[in-house]
Amino acid sequence: MTGAGPGNPRGVADDTADLEDALLRDLFPLRDRLRDEWFARELYQALTNTAWRKQDGPDGHLSLSWKRAEGIVNELRERDGEAPLELAQTGGEGELSPMLAEELAGLGWTSAPLDTGRHDDAHVEEAERHP
Fold first, then answer.
1. Ramachandran quadrant class, 98 (left: phi over 0; alpha: psi -120 to 50; beta: rest)
2. How far apart are CA 58 and CA 60, in angstroms?
3. Which terminus of the chain, N or C, has fewer Cβ atoms within 10 Å?
4. Percentage of the chain surpassing pLDDT 90?
5. How do residues 2-61 score in pLDDT, each as one tens digit?
6. Three-state SS for 54?
7. β-strand 50-54 against 123-124: which pairing, if any?
8. CA-closest candidate to residue 40, choices 9, 86, 3
9. What 8-state DSSP symbol labels residue 27?
10. Euclidean distance between CA atoms 69 and 95, whole angstroms
11. Residue 12 and residue 18: Cα distance in Å, rounded?
């Protein structure tokens, strides 16, 4: 179920959008580090095949498609004048380095491996991103 209902008055889609907005806000201060391609690649890998939750944030979890994770990394890179990178389907999806795990935990984010064997209403595709 992706919409509002008796048990979820706002809906999964609303919670997912709120979580994605929170993630973008939290990652914004890291954009200067994304100039380094190795850091950008590690962030992309960490954001994919993973369910992310924000401590004291919106309910639910966020799981990004490979294309959407690439888009987030490149959006932050482009804000600092860096060229976009081709990241989707380049390998390492779902790998979370200890350095990135610590960095994201410091921003209030926790993760769990994504169960790719089932449908996830919180999975965000590139085309679904609101303006």
1. alpha
2. 7
3. C
4. 66
5. 344 444 444 556 788 999 999 999 999 998 999 999 999 999 999 999 999 999 888 889
6. strand
7. unpaired
8. 86
9. H
10. 13
11. 10
Residue recorded with tokens 């795990």: 101
Place of tokens 């060229």: 83
Distance between CA atoms of 84 and 86, rounded to whole angstroms? 7
Consecutive H or E run containing 112: strand 109-113
Token representation of residue 130 = 């609101």
Tell whether pTM > 0.90.
no
Structure tokens at 46: 């960490």
Pairs from 24-29 (Cβ < 8 Å, separation ≥ 24): 24/72, 24/75, 24/76, 26/54, 26/107, 26/108, 26/109, 27/72, 27/76, 27/107, 28/76, 28/79
Closest CA to 52 of 23, 30, 28, 72: 23
57's tokens: 């944030």
pLDDT at 124: 55
Which residue type does 24 have?
L
| Nearest-5° Cα angle at 79, 32 to 73 | 70
**Residue labelled with tokens 């303006």:** 131
The whole-angstrom separation of Cα 76 and Cα 60 is 24
